Protein 1
Amino acid sequence: MSDTHLPALLGDRPAEDSWRLLHRAVDLGLDFTSGALRDGLVLRHATVSELIDRFAGPLPQDGGSDGQLLEDLAEIARWSISQADPRYLAFPDTGDSIAALAADIVASFLNQNLIAFDRSAPAASVIEAQLITWLREIVGYPVTPLADYRGLASLGGMWTSGGNMSNHIAIAAALAHTYPEIRTTGLRALPEQPLILLAGGVEHFSYLAAAQALGLGSDGLLWADATADFTSDPDSVARLLASPPPGKRIFMVVGVAGNCRTTGIDDLQALAELSGQHNVWFHVDACHGGSLLFSEKLKVQLAGIEHADSVALDPHKGLFVSYPSSYVLFRDPAALGRFARYPDRADAPDCLDLGLITPFYGSRGFESLKLWALMKHQGTSGIGRLVEDRQATFQAMVDLLERTGCFRMLGTSDFYRCAFVFFPTPVAEVLDQATLPAARHAAVRDLISCYTAAFADRLYRAGTVVFDLFALQDLADRIGLGIGAKYQVMGMCVGHPHIPDHVEHGIEQDITEAARDLTGRMLDDLQALLASADPAAGTSGPDVTGPAGW
Ligand SMILES: *Cc1c(COP(=O)(O)O)cnc(C)c1O
């Protein structure tokens, strides 16, 4: 490639040069995916300061050549983590649907602005409306076929940049439905404090974030109990709905279709009935579990979702679509119409200006083309097969963890993710035989947390196997040291439907080696702790939580 300065804009360049640059960019992407740019590792680990040293530079005043640009991009890829690598087991976000990747490239060229139909996004608006209709059908909502399109107020869903935003919008819609007057008067004029009812311990942070951002405040969240399976306890929800705190009104119940820690799925049917009885908005957070809706076999786990007033889906988590890809859907399509800047335009049968009914967003790109392309390319049956294959692969990976004898699972798992601590058999045996006074429980919990974090970090830094690491209560008391306190736990999430045998063996080998090394030290520490006369003696690791989301 020529190293001379070429013009900045596609339209000003020789077609041949543009073609070459863009093809090399695709080659670079493929080299990243294959692992060639990552030395065959999930990532080449580096610390924040190491990467700042590597990439920090002065304000670029004079530009560089195409070749220099590609080299810069390759260097960024070399220090990136591959969520599509089958040894990446922290989240399900593989983002490697080939159809979605192709669509992403095309969407960049099209550069449509989905704020409006005329002058901004003619075909794209229709495609996004079609996709919303398909997603409604998959959830089990009433559907108006696109051919009978009757205007924005009948659409009933929108693309968003993530589940966090989808949940914000669902809450805003539930508020606007319950208190139509707040559009004018704001929350301050309400005679009562509005509350969102959700289970503690299984909640995603987005509800707290939304309560704070939307003016409800953190006091606007009312916490129900979680079950030992890490799901919302319907009995607790029933009790709180029957007797909300004085001067307050529950306007929304949140059901979780796959929590982000163990994937426990709520009894959505029971929560829908309870919400219905009390005439309260029912929101289902299916950011994780939504992918199961594509499988005829697995979707029964989400039975009742069709009764939800709103549903959040996150295709960028478990549907093989790259970020950002999330959708929020409303059983009553008028829910979004309430946000319309020009309500009579939103009701006009020939208006498809999506920007009229998309709160928080003005100009935005054609991100929906990715999921549309995946669905056209694979059909619901193809996607369903991928989701089922992934489930089988997840089971095989759980078996792998179990047969190493190094871990203890916390709670059960409803689909592709489980949570566990480093708890090798010899350690468990010593603990079984010791009579441990309650005053010592905290120290042993800290020891387990500390070694769990050390184990996960060792593999992560080596770049060989990536588990998630976050904090979780042992609600089912699987370890036997009480359910109140949080442990640092690892999460294994299988995003890939197919993990080749040799990769699986490699993972088992890497796990066993790291465990061998740590088990002896953990045993020594445990024995020292048990022998110590000081009840406060202990090993305490740093407090580690999950990524921003938890
Ligand atoms: C991930 C997640 C979210 C937030 O989604 P983002 O896409 O990260 O914004 C919300 N709820 C649940 C249950 C999730 O797992």
Protein 2
Amino acid sequence: MSGGDKLDFEIRPNPQPVSAAERAALMANPGFGRIFTDHMVTIRYADGKGWYDARVEARAPIPMDPASAVLHYAQEIFEGLKAYHAADGGVTMFRPDANARRFNASAERMSMAPLPEQVFLDTLHQIIEIDREWVPTSDDSSLYLRPFMFASEVFLGVRPAQEYLYVLIASPVGSYFSGGIKPVALWVSQEYTRAAPGGTGAAKCGGNYAASLAAQAEAIEHGCDQVIFLDAVQRKYVDELGGMNVFFVYDDGTLATPPLSGTILPGITRESVITLARAAGQTVEERPVSIEEWRADAESGRLREVFACGTAAVITPIGTVRTPDGEFVMGDAGPGEVTMSLRQRLVDIQRGRATDPYGWVHRVL
Ligand SMILES: *Cc1c(COP(=O)(O)O)cnc(C)c1O
């Protein structure tokens, strides 16, 4: 019984927005996820009532009862996408409809109320409109949008909550790679897995991230930047990184990426890369890739490049893979040509510098 596809937002502008001078100082070097805009969007849900009380208001702490269900049983999901400053002074977003659909797919897996896709899109428009001064204008920056939803019902019984709070916040972000794009080193987690068949691997839920932190800490201990997970059943096939999908590029020009088997998050960047590669005549296979195969092909030179992809970093070259048995290196361990060319094509569409034959770019302002 969710509400209609159209909600009226009550707009209460922040009475004390950050001054233009202070905003400029904050945005000079925003980093990732450190600074936030003046506003947030919130919508409440209750069983029998649907979605109600949609607001655009000053970003502020959310009062929470200690018995709120999310604090105990982790019914929480989120999304991440970016808004870009367009050449003509406007603002665009990249494939927000795909995020809206995935948000509801995650909600369904976590037994949460679905949010009408149009309402999800409306919230993105609302925050961009009111916080448009926070959309960075520089070429390698963007406004990161973080919609999320959690069980707000005050109840300790174990069952799907009957009340939810949807929140949207926004954060100006700089280039993910300060000082140029350099390949990362991955640690192959031996002890931990990210997702098992039948689990929540395909849902964008906070719990998946909580469970990945120990493995990420292990990666850092081994001198690596990121962790890569193997499948939970055979501990053999490559799943993905903690928050990025992975692609392999072979010497005959073909690409491979693990299939969406339910244990992998269906990345929108992943899907966009597949589309762009195929449009350029490249073969992309969605198939399981084992860690032994990865090592053998890297050592024989058949495997030329490997990269990870996701909204935050777009496309990240992978240079080294480390396991307890030693490490192996991709190609010449530098960013590969195919990787960088795909990255360029994708970023050019996202930033309106190339034509967009797929209807991916969504105009906001
Ligand atoms: C969000 C996410 C990705 C990347 O998805 P995009 O839609 O490309 O940003 C990949 N893996 C995990 C686990 C994620 O949470």
